[in-house]
Amino acid sequence: MPEGPSLVILKELVQPFKNKKVIAVGGNTKLDVTPFAGKKIIDFKTWGKHFLICFSKGTIRIHLMLFGSYTINEQKATPPRLSLAFQNGTLYFYTCSIKIIDEPLDNIYDWSADIMSDAWDAKAAIEKLTQHPDTMVCDALLMQDIFSGSGNIIKNEVLFRVKVHPESLLGNVAKSKLKALVTETRKYAFDFYNWKKAYVLRKHWKVHTKKICPDCERPLTKTYSGKFKRRSFYCENCQILY
DNA sequence: CCGGTTGTTCAGCG
DNA sequence: GCGCTGAACAACCG
To answer: Using 50, 70 and 90 to split pLDDT, how confident is the model at A198?
Structure first.
């Protein structure tokens, strides 16, 4: 489930519960979520991969990590980590990380770093990139303070789109190319969102989990690159190492 | 059917 | 205190 665009889809799906009172909370979370029973949800927000259930006093933060999932109105076989029951339905979260946030969200979240947000600030992202000259682009695309919501799929697909080798150092990449990287990340995130909604996301992968370059038809390289050692799929021929 | 993974945090170490 | 490594989490797909 987890990259940013998937969370925006989740936010849309739970709109029937906005401004609704939670009649019961459940689940096997160790956190004490009982104070939220009887309280009204005033908003659902997302920041990258964070799903935020906002009450007038406090917020429940859900992070689906790698294996997390959710259902609406129907339970899975496995016990939910958290469930929120409403008069008009129930929301279930499985195998996720949950935190309670007491501070105002604006104190913790830089909304302009969220690749799906209306507040997204491309200029600020470019500025942040120039501050990490020794970082590889493959790592940069996973840094949530720069590209909140970007994950490994977005990383691989964007690098192929802009024809940049994942192990290029930011300091070596021309400013115009950094701009293209930032623009394309935002653009791909929305393509991801639309394809995911239409259940055709996988079909549109050009390099992620693929074996052959769609452009030159040579074999793709698969390595665990950068500080984060996440899978990179790329074409040595088409993607330039800066 | 087993291996790998759309992610993050934390403990332990040098 | 820092950076690095590996573990933990625990579900689904191919």
So the answer is: confident
Strand B contact with A185 (CB < 7 A): no
Which among A138, A144, A103 is positioned nearest to A242, based on CA atoms? A138
- Does residue A65 come out as left (phi exceeding 0), alpha (psi in the -120 to 50 range) or beta? left
The answer to whether A21 and A14 are in contact (CB under 8 A) is no
Residue nearest to nucleotide B9 (CA to C1'): A97
> B12 C1' – A42 CA distance, angstroms?
42
pTM for this prediction: 0.94
Tens of pLDDT, residue by residue over A40-86, are: 999 999 999 999 999 999 999 999 988 889 999 988 888 899 999 99
A96 closest-nt by C1' vs CA: C9
Phi first, then psi, for residue A12 (nearest 5°) are: -65, -40
Token code pair at residue A32 = 């004490």
